[in-house]
Amino acid sequence: MSEDSGAGRAVSARQLSDEVASYVRELIMSGRLRSGDFIRQERIAEELELSATPVREGLLSLKGEGFVLLKPRRGSSLPPVGSRYPGLVYGSGFAGRRTCRSCRRPDEPGRPA
């Protein structure tokens, strides 16, 4: 086997977890999954015809964005909507934090005209 085969699998696995994250994010943003809903990893894997590993990795990615709560031995669920979970309010934890930092009142000094 060549040395590149391992790298190819790593890239492929990363793309699969990104696909899972995009799919679940779309379920959330479209309202098909709502605050407090439990996310069944087996169902997501079945719908996307994937194994459990990329689903788990995709949900970990969404946890980092504030979209998903992961509870040991309990599974994944959507957090309650609120300021503590900007991913659900703004669509992305990072984008939400950037938006909040860049917002200023119209009369604040330094605001572009």
Textual characterization of the structure:
The protein is mainly α and 113 residues long. The protein has a single domain, classed as Orthogonal Bundle (Arc Repressor Mutant, subunit A). It is built from 5 helices and 3 strands. The chain has a 3-stranded antiparallel β-sheet. It is globular and about 35 Å long. It starts with a helix and ends in an 11-residue tail after the last helix.
Topology at a glance:
Blueprint: H1 4-29, E1 38-39, H2 41-48, H3 52-65, E2 69-71, E3 75-77, H4 86-90, H5 93-102
Helix pairs in contact: 1-3, 2-3
What number is the mean pLDDT?
Answer: 75
The CATH topology label is Arc Repressor Mutant, subunit A
Tally of alpha and pi helices: 5
The CATH H-level homologous superfamily: Winged helix-like DNA-binding domain superfamily/Winged helix DNA-binding domain
Radius of gyration from the alpha-carbon trace, in angstroms: 18 Å
Apparent shape: globular
Identify low-pLDDT runs.
90-102
| CATH class annotation | Mainly Alpha
The tally of beta strands, per DSSP, is 3
- What is the CATH architecture annotation? Orthogonal Bundle
